[in-house]
Amino acid sequence: MTGIEQTRRRAILDPRTAAERFRLTQEPAPPDLAPFLDGFWILHWNLAEPHRQRVLTHPVVHLTFTTGGQARITGVVTGTSTQEISGTGRAVGLRFRPGGFRPFLDAPVSTLTDRVLDAEEVFGTRARAVADAVAAEPGVPAALLLAAGLLRDVRPTPDPEIDTAARLVGVIGDDPAVLRTGHLAAIAGMSVRRLQRLFAQYVGVGPKWVIRRTRMQEAAARAAASPQNWSDLAAELGYADQAHFTRDFTACVGVSPAAYASSARGPNGS
């Protein structure tokens, strides 16, 4: 698994259980859509009982086509997202780059935050026909081609601000020392106010939120992988003490770090 795939999968909570319930694969974005699109994800499931999956989403917009012909746009989810799947089905998702959905929207991306829209609200009636075609197409490559066609119909104009926004979100993920908005603004060579406006327009949430969410994803991934010294981890993630870290983790994930670690690693701690 590549480093990029590992980063994407950090959004999935309780990964051990998730791996038993569904199969998730990734495909890269086609070159002509790469300025806007990070790539595709494809989910397959065949379940005897419904499964509810918790996710700590990344600061990106998703366009998802699911079994039954639904097509929905999901903005950045600031809380813990829970999705239920049941029976047998498939979802085809388009994962936009941070900032990459802005050219498709006549408004700041922050207007989508914590919202789910029918794709027709943004892409018009063409989205309905594409959703039906994707649902009817059994082959994944052909389904991805149909989904990508909806974006190509818009003929979006490349925007250099997308690259700026995506680069700065990447800096947060790549550099654990970036713990404050002011630090990121200095790296970007812009004022804090300008940085906050950029994130509202293109990312959908503020830089402080992205920093906190990225650190929580890191904490959850480590807790699920191996035993942790919570005090050391709190310090590494920029917290003044373990109590503040525990409070933030519990508010974000829904359970304490220790409880999450126990659940995610299973009864044998593996």
Automatic annotation (TrEMBL):
InterPro entries: AraC_XylS_family_regulators, DUF6597, Homeodomain-like_sf, HTH_AraC. It comes from the Bacteria. The keyword Cytoplasm does not apply. Keywords: DNA-binding, Transcription, Transcription regulation. Residues 166-263 form the HTH araC/xylS-type domain. The keyword Signal does not apply. This is AraC family transcriptional regulator. It comes from Streptomyces fragilis.
